[in-house]
């Protein structure tokens, strides 16, 4: 026997010194070559009886070549935009993994919500470029088979800075061009951002978007904005027009200024530590190569000695003991001098009791209650009148919703303070001879107000870009923002996932991700500070995500049943919010088990949940592989997992055998039969259908009982006593019912006695109860009594205990301190008869008892 090997249908002939060798029939290859040794190998084994060929084996050689050595051009991107850095792996074989080095080893790019490295292409994606991203990026490629790694040439990433400032010569004509892409075609408009109106001489060509300024002057310089907008949104770009650089010189009384106290910056003249000598005329000279212009101004320096004539100190200031007092000192003087205070002849200095800058405000939080005191020291012979003002308006107590309450000694309480109660509160105290007032600013801190100008700036198939303006923080900085969304399919407002994931207090833009395609969304934003979460912003206008091919497939793919030659396929429809676009439908694919090709059918209704394929060639109860896919106007989506279902089966062809019926009681009959084979290639037995009817009834009105599974008996209840019934039985499955068996009949037993036990006598002795009653005699059409059931309970609502006896007496153990309720009923082969009336045995109080005999009569 010997072995031969083939490579790509050509025989391999090992020779001395070659890379091929045969060892025990195995082929050994040294120094693998990816050009020569890759291919399909087969082994042929031959002996005197013949030759056999092995299965084909495919050899692939893993390798990884080096990157090309040329350098890569810088990638320029604006701050806030996204960028893709291409890896471009070299020729290779075998699975690769990719990482990126930032600037130098071992600083690797960490993946997060902003950075992503594709393990298919090796490309590095940065969602929103920041200044910290600037640097050199190097792609590192690793072959998972050979474990070898190589580094590509570095790719510099730099921030792109657009030159938006345009220098213009004096008296020249300026043209600013603006063009924007969009669908529908956007309209172009221009405006000045610095608040200055566009001059009448400026011409805007709306058709071409060109702004033309003839005879350019210095007042035409400024910040201009081009705005492009259509029905889908708006965008804008800023540019600066400035006059050609000019030289400025300042003169004082015709002499150039160059003293240390004088500074000139950007055309602004600043003189520190003014002196009387600085009084005079000042002249600004501006010049460039086109000419020179002058402008003049006069500087006057005011020097005034301190003067109290206009703001005299009050001759008397009243203050309450232990309180605070403010004495204002506001003399007129220039320059501003030093102020000092004396008490009598003693000079005052600032201390914990004397403060030259008294605080006049109070911080509170929404919902708190505060008391604003107003107390004064006064002559006890004078009557005081307290009056409170809120923001200079008189407070009428009782007219502010119960928030303001006047307290004793002139104090005022504000209950459950709200944001609208912030402001200046003034307490005025009057007597017949004098008046005094004190004011306090109340600052109310609360949850933030709703953000403003909330809008959707861009929508994709799964994301929404949002922007908003800051609302009032109500004296507590905003810590976080939260985005919520709702659709016609959601239960109210729901939280969403955003990029960045955590929205800080100063964040005014966000991108919502993981949205469903082709769904109309509304968004809103809520701000939160240390006090709590404020009211949400107004909802955005409804915006629909873009459509895309569907990704969600139907669930619960099943089927079976139907009539002969049918294949019934069912599924759970895909909800509207997951259909990803208009024109949604289903692609039903099926094939007989073991077949290769698929048959397909399109179901165009998005609400459809079944498809029936009918063909006379379909064998009964034959297995099919089934899968259901989806599509819409954007394209086809995936297929769901393959399920195995069976075509429609045939109805049972045989009737059950050995059908028997026997009377169990006057109201019950038991029917039994021999089961049919549970299943075969064409038919299954899912259960049996039993029909029964009385001798005075028609078969068409028969009652029906259906069993599930392979049961072989059933008890029919609710029948009448001493009556003949007819019973018929047949098998059924998903295709229908089989033939009936031969009809059998059975007669129910006589009914039990209708009379209840009477003359019930009981007595107690120690802890026993002895019961006796008269025997119940059956009527002619009733079955004879075979025994009695005695039911007793300690509670009318609890389950009774039952004792059976074939005599007319019974002895029971009776617990102490319990009442007993007793009933007695006869029974016979026809069932249980009527019960006696209830008998109550009084509780036993304990101790030793005398024999007491009582009678209770019972009748129906």
TrEMBL record:
GO BP term (any one): cell-cell adhesion
Topology term for the membrane: Lipid-anchor; GPI-anchor
Keyword terms, alphabetized: Cell adhesion, Cell membrane, Disulfide bond, Glycoprotein, GPI-anchor, Immunoglobulin domain, Lipoprotein, Membrane, Repeat, Signal
InterPro entries: FN3_dom (IPR003961), FN3_sf (IPR036116), Ig-like_dom (IPR007110), Ig-like_dom_sf (IPR036179), Ig-like_fold (IPR013783), Ig_I-set (IPR013098), Ig_sub (IPR003599), Ig_sub2 (IPR003598)
SUPFAM superfamilies: Fibronectin type III, Immunoglobulin
Signal sequence interval, chain numbering: none
One GO term describing the cellular component: plasma membrane
Segments forming domain Ig-like: 65-151, 156-231, 331-437
Start and end residues of each stretch annotated as Disordered: 532-559
All residue ranges annotated as the Fibronectin type-III domain in the record: 450-548, 553-650, 655-751, 753-847
Cell compartments where the protein resides: Cell membrane
Pfam families xrefs: fn3 (PF00041), I-set (PF07679), Ig_3 (PF13927)
Family the entry assigns: Belongs to the immunoglobulin superfamily. Contactin family.
Known partners and oligomeric status: Interacts with PTPRG.
Name used for this protein in its record: Contactin 3a, tandem duplicate 1
Lineage, broadest ranks: Eukaryota, Metazoa, Chordata, Craniata, Vertebrata
